[in-house]
Amino acid sequence: MSATPARARVLVGVRELAADLRVGEGTDPAEGAPLLLDVRWALGMTDGHERYLAGHLPGAVYVDLESELAASPSPSEGRHPLPSTAELQDSARRWGVRASSRVVVYDTVGGTSAARAWWLLRYFGVADVRILDGGLPAWVRAGLPVEPGEVRRERGDVVLHPGHLPVLDADGAAEVADEGMLLDARAAERYRGEVEPVDPRAGHLPGAVSAPTTDNLGPDGCFLPDDALRERFADLGLSSDGEMPGVYCGSGVTASHEVAALATIGVTAALYPGSWSQWSSDPALPVATGARP
User: Fold this and answer.
1) Is residue 151 situated within a structural domain?
2) Long-range contacts of 237-240 (CB under 8 A, 24+ apart)
3) Whole-number pLDDT of residue 88
4) Which of 249, 253, 255, 267 is catalytic?
5) Cβ-count burial 138-164 (b if 16+ within 10 Å, e if not)
6) Which range marks the domain in which residue 48 is found?
7) Of 240, 238, 176, which Cα lies nearest the Cα of 208?
8) What is the pLDDT of residue 113?
9) Count of H helices and E strands in the chain?
10) Out of 30, 206, 228, 258, which could bridge 185 as a Cys pair, Cβ 3.0 to 4.6 Å?
11) Looking at the structure, do residues 117 and 179 belong to the same domain, yes or no?
């Protein structure tokens, strides 16, 4: 069954990508083939580059989430503030992104880190960016090849401009939580305030609904089918009246995955980049605990 237009704009399957790259044909990728970005990151992971060097999709360029997909952390901005236009443009050109590039991003954690690159590039105006559904594990399960070592591309010429996707600041997130739907994409125990491994205070934004990002995925690490995602978000209370939901997480990384999941079913959501790391650092802002909004 072919993907719906909305889903196809966000995700690409391993077989489709392999065909696009002409993997296994004994030839070089066709001109205009997608540029692959390996976003090997997870909370607490410090050896992403080493894992990339050991094996990655053919031709993929490594992307450092901490230094290239975020500005320096601070209590006032959060753990992963958005990089400036100039900073991200310099990084994107290093990766080889050009004005005409088609980009595919992937990771080893169901897209929960690669989605940060997807969201940022889309926010800054790169039109054709997709997430490899299932990431490297799905590629390997399909028997497709990986290669070791560093890949360096000819420097790109992309010109970035911000503002192509909606964002929220702290005031906007509070307003959406009060008047609409604000989704908390962190693990449920962090939402409830039972644990807080990295941020100053435990709990959630008052009025936010718990919607762990990992529930967007099936056991195989791929995004749930459209019908299952629609049912998931409807069960959370998302209405069909066109009102735009907001999404936050710990630092704006995994919330990007929730924005992507919603986009696959045709729903545009606003990201709160500062997320809980910014909110919980301000003692003047209220905190809720427990399982209810």
Assistant:
1) no
2) 237/181, 237/209, 238/181, 238/267, 239/181
3) 98
4) 249
5) bbbeeebeeeeeebeeeebebebeeee
6) 5-141
7) 176
8) 96
9) 12, 9
10) 258
11) no
CB atoms within 10 A of CB 91: 19
Asked whether residue 210 falls in the same domain as residue 124, the answer is no
What pLDDT was estimated at residue 243?
85
Domain CATH code at residue 57: 3.40.250.10
Q: Considering its fold, how many domains does the chain have in total?
A: 2
CA 76 and chain centroid, separation: 22
Contact 213, 255 (CB under 8 A): yes
Q: Can you tell me the distance from the alpha carbon of 273 to that of 268, in angstroms, rounded to the nearest whole number?
A: 16
Whether 249 is catalytic is yes
What is the structure's pLDDT at 204? Answer: 98
Which amino acid is located at 181 in the chain? Answer: M
Instruction: Specify whether 95 is located in the same domain as 213.
Output: no
Is pTM beyond 0.85? Reply is: yes
What order do you get walking across the sheet with 35-38 strand by strand?
A: 11-12, 129-132, 103-106, 35-38, 61-62
Residue-wise pLDDT for 182-192, tens only, equals 999 999 999 99
Q: What are phi and psi of 55, to 5 degrees?
A: 175, 130
Collapsing DSSP to helix, strand or coil, 198 comes out as: coil
What are the DSSP E strand ranges found in the chain? 11-12, 35-38, 61-62, 103-106, 129-132, 182-184, 209-210, 246-248, 270-271
